[in-house]
Design goal:
By secondary structure, this protein is an alpha+beta fold. The protein is about 40% helix and about 20% strand.
Amino acid sequence: MLKQIKHLKKSLTVTFREVLSQPNATFNVRIFTPLKGRKKLILRLIKNEKYFILKNIDGLAENQIKELCFKVSPEPIQGLVGLTYQLKDITYDPSPNKPPDKAKTSYHLDSYQSAKTSNVGFITAAPIFSPNSEIIAIVTVDSEINIGTILDEYQERELRKIFQEYCDNYLSEVLSLIK
């Protein structure tokens, strides 16, 4: 299974490099799933908050991050994971760590989240739905390479198409590892 996961990541990386015109970029694939257990129960019952936590899977990311989670509901949501959950669609940010301008939304990150994501130069995220249309995971692809500009219409359409196909066709195998 690990060999297959590495092959899938490699094929996604090659395609992302081509679409983003970044031939030397490296990419990390990360999977966030709903927080479970006692902590989830407390947050859900007392604060009515829902969080997604990073599940580290060998072969998907070069640098593993421990205990990284983002609030996805209610407002204020955190990070691109929270935005993806809210919009229920693929999102991306070509330069998430540039100082926000007036048009850019704040990601409401705490100091731990900021420290762990400070080297991210590009990120895209996609929701994974259950058969009953509930978001069961959010997949992100990030790179330290700063793309720096908004993608043109063609690049954005290609990026969305590739990422959606990857999520639809290959992630059921990966998700089976984290159940």
